[in-house]
Amino acid sequence: MARPPKSSPIRVLIAKPGLDGHDRGAKVVARALRDAGMEVIYAGLRQTPEEIVRAALEEDVDLIGLSILSGAHMALFPKVLALLKREKAGNIPVFAGGIIPDEDARRLKKAGIRAIFGPGTTLEEIVTTAQKLARGAA
Amino acid sequence: MTRATPVPPAARAILSGDRRALARVISQVENRDPAVAPISRALYPRTGHTPIVGITGPLGVGKSSLINLLVARLRELDRSVAVVAVDPSSPFTGGSVLGDRIRFERRADDAGVFFRSMASRGEAGGVAAATREVARLMDAAGFDVVLVETVGSGQVDIAIRDIATTSVVVLVPHLGDEVQTLKAGLFEIADVFCVNKADLPGADLARKDLSELVGLGAARSGWSPLVVSTSTTQPSGVDQLWSAVEAHERFLDTSGQRAVEERRRLSAEIVDLVRERVGRELSQRLDHDADLRGLLDRVVARKIDPRAAAEQLQRGNALPA
Lengths: 138, 321
What we know:
The structure holds two protein chains of two kinds. Chain A is α/β, with parallel strands linked by helices. Chain A contains five helices and five strands; from the N terminus they run E-H-E-H-E-H-E-H-E-H. In chain A, strands 2-1-3-4-5 form a five-stranded parallel β-sheet, sandwiched between helices. The longest helix of chain A is centred in the middle third of the chain and has 14 residues, at 73-86. The chains are: A alpha/beta, B alpha/beta.
């Protein structure tokens, strides 16, 4: 469903799949997206792919950001994408951040993760990319 | 004579339990999409029978955690439940971090629960402009109970009273002495007081103060607010909290107050809608309309005062219809 431009803020879900408890990165990104005028639904730690997809649909988000440091990204990210597709919500762009080796990043992008941010990425870059993804321009 | 208008597909989908449709129409309501009007119109006759329970209280008293336990309790009772949780928007950027979902645990496949976070988008009073209509959509969608969590409230954030059929004011020990409970505002709107974090020292005193407050006042329209204690860390009291809410809902039916309160709420809603629309159009015209800009110029130049300008607008029928 097309959103009326301008007046409606971008809604983005930030979630941490997997079992690691390191949510500082996710919180910093949530804060930066908030400061860019977005409505950030912060789902917190240890979310299963099912919970993430359900939250995305209930909250009717424009965008999903996943943060992971546990190393389970190759199992969990494709699961999120598959569930979104099953719910006919494959059009919601998904981006990711965390410790993700280059080779994995290439494969995940091929699988449909739209952007992957490693350590050292500037917040500005994340915000700009998120805006483009949400507006369907990236 | 009434003309049968076709029911919009989105309204039909909501009535049939389609949660995606509900989620999308909620966004449209939040965005003030004009396409919502026929949907609201079609759904309105199907609403008004669901308890809408407001959970309000200051920042950090445990509203989200309580709602999590209340939802679990309601599911035990086999009641379906929708939650709308409001958090503040930044007055500077319009952005928001909506964090109420963090406390929310449930089975990912439980279709009897629906949770929506909402930013206040510039509205004061503890809820967003769209909250009332969103609660009504959830009612139309067939949930047995709707829970509305307000922004952490200050002493005069009582807008929930124009939405909820039962208002629960959540407090914690050591918020202040008993004189605080005599003050006007938040303490006056409670149908149920909930002393949360009852495991902390001072909880008994807080409960006692509130009970005395309730005993002092002439009961409002025949209802004396109930006082319950809860803890969310060592879960206790949640059954009693729900029983207190149900007792108030029963009172509304047996006393005839439900109709009285409903009428008051709907009157407030109509006034709000007119005020919002007239205010928005008028402020646009004061910026753009040549005549009205002239009027504003004269106020700025101290030639006439704001009150005189307002009267002139009303007399000259310059207010938008």
